[in-house]
Amino acid sequence: MNININRKAIIKTLICASGFLLFSNNASNAQNNTTLQEVQEIVAIVNDKIISLYDLEQRTLLIKLAGGDRELSEADEDYLQQQAMQALIDDRLKIQEAAKYESIMEEKDVLDSYNNYASQFELKPEELEAQMENQGVVKNTLLDQIRGSMAWQSIVGGLLEQQVNVTDDEVDNYIDKMERLKGKDQYRVSEIFVLITDNSLRERILTNIGTLHQQLLEGVPFAGVAQQFSQSSTAAVGGDLGWVMADEIPSEVNDAVLAMDVGDISAPIITDDGVYIVQVTDRRQILTENDNDIAVELMHLLFESEGADFEALNLKVYEAVSENKSCDVVEDLAKELGAKESGLLGTFRIGQLPQEIREEMLELEIGAGTNLYEEPTGFRSFILCDKVIPDISMPEYETVLEDLTKSRVQLIAKRHLRDLRRDAIVDYR
């Protein structure tokens, strides 16, 4: 049985959720031969804040690296530069709005956020900086992006959230709705949202969104693209909207989601506010037990496939892992059995795992492992370290209140950024 799964693939969603992607070692090295002219040359002024040619080139390169190692056409390069310019404009607007309300970003917090990025990939901050510099990106380019994101989060959480008032009746009605819809599908959705505030640019934006959509279909990670391009407040978490029920998202988006399977990416969806691309990352039934919702913590043993006798190796490995053991002994088992790789994969819902191994995983006792499964990188056995069956019960009042508030704040945030862009004085040079 061939399963196209490997450790990097199974944890890719966790990595992407951090909002930043490790750079490919095969990416072409950019030459960081910055001239004084590039630093001084102004390409735009946003209200009274400048964007230099150097700023634009650096942000373009950062976005390019986030998209992965691939050949870019001239049209792709032009599109990335347009997106970099819009991202820089938005960052200036966000920081200006935060300053207007005296929301101060401590540099220590910015550096802490940078350090968290590095830790997501088991890198020290200086190692991440070295990787970026190897690709021609200076550390401050990423720090500036973090500053813009933090500024916006301060506005969303400090100013806009105060404008949302969810009543007791609304919470009660939502809980009643969940009871009525028990057994119906609920979807976990990620979004990329691009505002359209200038109709003269409408066709260009739609063309660019079409290019972005094609890149997603070719395998560019959705969460990384959302972090770089989306103009929704969810960009900071890779576009993740969380779990939604029918009619909780714009009707055009809702219609698309209902027709999608898990993993599908929608075509661009045009609404009154802008353009969406959405991905359905999971599905479950409301207030209904489902094996796919069981959370499992997994370790693994990976064996070389070249020259190996699958049947003999599978028998040997399965005899060793089928008995209930502690996951503390997995590393010892790896040495004993000659595994080329082993370790913790993380915690996943059964529904996130390949269909082929779900049934066996559900039958395992904690401490036991699966048969070997063939994949491109070798033969792999999965070891079950923990299993958590979710409690199927009505959500607490505070949970519903938080979810409703979050949903409304996201909507207000989109409109607020749209208004900032509409009212801004942007002088392109």
Radius of gyration: 24 Å
Annotation, overall tally of beta strands: 11
Tell me the series of helices and strands, N- to C-terminal.
Answer: HHHEEHHHHHHEHHEHEEEHHEHEEHE
- Which strands sit side by side, in order, in the main sheet? 4-3-6-5
Binned strand content: 15-25%
- Give the overall silhouette: globular
Q: Given the structure, what is the number of helices?
A: 16
Which stretches are poorly predicted, pLDDT < 50 over at least 5 residues?
A: 1-32
Helicity, as a percent range: 40-55%
Q: Separation of termini?
A: 59 Å
Structural class: alpha+beta
Indicate the mean pLDDT: 85
Q: In this structure, how is the largest beta sheet organized?
A: 4 strands, antiparallel
Describe the structure concisely for a colleague.
It is built from 16 helices and eleven strands. By secondary structure, it is α+β, with helices and mostly antiparallel strands.
Keywords:
17% strand, 4-stranded antiparallel β-sheet, 429 residues
Summarize the structure in words.
This protein is an alpha+beta fold and 429 residues long. 47% of the residues lie in helices and 17% in strands. The chain is built from 16 helices and 11 strands. It has helices at residues 7-10, 12-17, 36-40, 53-66, 74-100, 107-120, 125-134, 139-160, 168-180, 202-217, 222-229, 251-258, 310-321, 330-337, 355-363, 397-423; strands at 42-46, 49-52, 185-195, 240-244, 269-270, 274-285, 295-303, 341-349, 373-375, 378-388, 426-428. The strands form 3 sheets. It has a 4-stranded antiparallel beta sheet, with helices on both faces. It has a 4-stranded antiparallel beta sheet with strand order 8-7-10-9, with helices on one face. Strands 2-1-11 form a 3-stranded antiparallel beta sheet. The longest helix is centred in the N-terminal third of the chain and has 27 residues, at 74-100. The radius of gyration is 24 Å and the shape is globular. It starts with 6 loop residues before the first helix and ends with a strand. Residues 1-32 have low confidence and may be disordered.
